[in-house]
C-alpha cells in the first residue's frame, strides 16, 4: 500500500508518503518522502506554542507540504491507497486543519481515510527506516520487534510507560502526575533564560559543561525515582531549578550557572526516566524495550537507555532521529496497522472526528 500521512497536532505541518507491506506477520515500511514545516520561529518569541497562530500557519502550509511530499515520492494522487491523519491528542485548532484537509482529499480522490492517535504514531516510529532504505535489503537487519514490548513515551505533552501486548493492544502502567519530561525541559530552559524549544537548548548547555570540564556543582532532586509505582513527576524539579537559580545568580555569572544547571537538569530527568523504565522491565519482563517521542532525540537519554538495556541483554530500540519529533511518516505507519485491523471504506471521510484529549 502507498499511504499518505498528515500530521498537524501541534506546531509542525507534516506530510509523508510511505510504502507499507507484509501485513502483521512481517510489516515492512519504505519512507518515500517525509516533510515537516517547523513553526519554531513563529512561537519562540512567546516561549511556547500559541494555538491560533499555529492553526493559521498550518492553513498556509498544509497543501504545499502535501504536494511536495507526493512529488518527492514520485507518485500521483491516484496511486495513493490510503490517507492517514492525526485526529488527537493535540491542539484543537491545529488538529482541525489536518483532519479537514484529509477529509477533503479523501472525498476528491475517492480514497479511504483513517484517523489515528498521535501517541500511537510515536510508538510506530520505531518501525521506520531512514528515507531511501529498503528494509528488506540484505545489507540491513530488519527491525524484529517482539511482544510484549515496553515503551517509554517522552514528549512535550506526554510521559508514559506503556506495555504493548500486540498491535493496537496497550496498557498504560505509568504516567506523569503533572509536567511531562519535554515540558520540564521547556520550562526550566525558560527559567534559565534559554531559547525555546528547551530540550535542545538544555542539551547544548549541558555539553558546554562537559567540554569545559567545569567544577561548579549543583544538585537537584530526582522526583519519585524511588516510589513504588511507575509514575513520574517533574513539577518539583522545575521549582527546585527556580529557587537554585535565583540564589546562585546573586553570586555567579550566568555563563557559569547555565551550563552547570543544564547538565544537572538533563541528568535528573534522564535518571528518573531510565530508573522507572528499568523497574517496569524487571516486573513485566518485556521481549523488547523502546522509546518514542520528541525527548527520544536527547543524546544523553538514548545513550543511558542503550547502556542499561544492553547490559540486561533486552533488545532496545530508538527511532531514527528524523522520526523522534512530530512527523507524518509515523502517522502513515500507524494508519497501516489500523487499516489492517479494520478495513477502511471510501466513505470514511464522513466519520473522522477530532479529539483533542484522545487517550491511547
Automatic annotation (TrEMBL):
What PROSITE patterns does this protein map onto? GLYCOPROTEASE
Write down the required cofactor(s).
Fe(2+)
Q: Which GO terms describe its molecular function?
A: iron ion binding; tRNA N(6)-L-threonylcarbamoyladenine synthase activity
Q: Which residues bind substrate?
A: 153-157, 186, 199, 298
User: What does the entry's cofactor note say about binding and number?
Assistant: Binds 1 Fe(2+) ion per subunit.
For this protein, the Enzyme Commission number is: 2.3.1.234
Superkingdom of the source species = Bacteria
Q: What InterPro entries would the database entry show?
A: ATPase_NBD (IPR043129), Gcp-like_dom (IPR000905), KAE1/TsaD (IPR017861), Peptidase_M22_CS (IPR017860), TsaD (IPR022450)
Q: Which GO terms describe its biological process?
A: tRNA threonylcarbamoyladenosine modification
Keyword annotations for this protein, in alphabetical order, are: Acyltransferase, Cytoplasm, Iron, Metal-binding, Transferase, tRNA processing
Q: Which family does it belong to?
A: Belongs to the KAE1 / TsaD family.
Q: What is this protein called?
A: tRNA N6-adenosine threonylcarbamoyltransferase
Q: Give the species this sequence originates from.
A: Candidatus Azambacteria bacterium RIFCSPLOWO2_02_FULL_44_14
- Gene that produces this protein: tsaD
